[in-house]
Prior knowledge:
This protein is an alpha/beta fold. It is 37% helix and 14% strand. It has a seven-stranded mixed sheet with strand order 1-7-6-5-4-2-3, sandwiched between helices.
Amino acid sequence: MRYSRMPIEVESPEEYGYGNIRFNLSESSIADQSLASFGLEIPDLTLLYGEHRGSPGLRELIASVDPSLGINDVLICGGAAGALFIVATAVLGKDDHLVVVRPNYATNLETPRAIGCGIALIDLAFEDGFALDPDRIEQAITPSTKLVSITCPHNPTGTSIAEAELRRIVEITARHGVLLLVDETYRDLSLATPLPIAASLGSHVISVSSLSKAFGAPGIRVGWIINSDPALQELFLAAKEQISICGSVINEWVAEGILRQKRAFLTRTLAEWRRRLDRIAEWLEGRTCWNG
Ligand SMILES: Cc1ncc(COP(=O)(O)O)c(C=O)c1O
């Protein structure tokens, strides 16, 4: 592995200094929350090594979103970033090939680059409304392709594919014997009905998400991998154990407390998002085109 710092991290608000930013127009999460805003007070927890896969209560809450998923399909990781790192390093080697969408959240591109595997980039274009064409994914697959990697809802464009397209990509990757990674970190912020958890659509599909964006809790670094293939989960667990053995018992306790309030919290958040989106749409409507 050859690491170099990603510009998105060098220039991140926390590294640049929140105090140096007057108008943050590009924040990618909802406002950062506090323990008090979730009504949580940390009890006297025993500071033991936690269960390596993550606390059962937390994994149960994550799996409960889809009846086809069980607690053993969930592995808790150090944020979605940690989950993406585990997937890339566990699945890809120098001689392997990856098909990945660009632009993308940087880790989805940079970890494979650090590994030194072959990469086919599927560039999304403004002119096409950043649409992702499943046929382009199929055309990019080679005999050495191990992984197809997409992000949906997409960062940085905010676009989402339709369920039929997701199912098509699931079918294409299954037919070619290729794993499919779907970075679903923004799934809970979908204003339309969210797509199914991708990992519920096939044992070759790996979903990644976290509490960072939709719940405003990036500071607890709790994310997860969902996948229903026990052999793959064992591989991901082996990677996690080499990195950190287990997660933080404190952070997982907090994560569980947040997820217990998921429905009420997201209902409030999405209503506020809808209100703000309508406000911007209204404002845009009153403007003339740049060159109009
Ligand atoms: C699409 C996407 N995936 C993953 C991450 C990493 O999130 P986390 O804070 O859970 O590590 C981000 C953060 O910006 C992201 O935008």
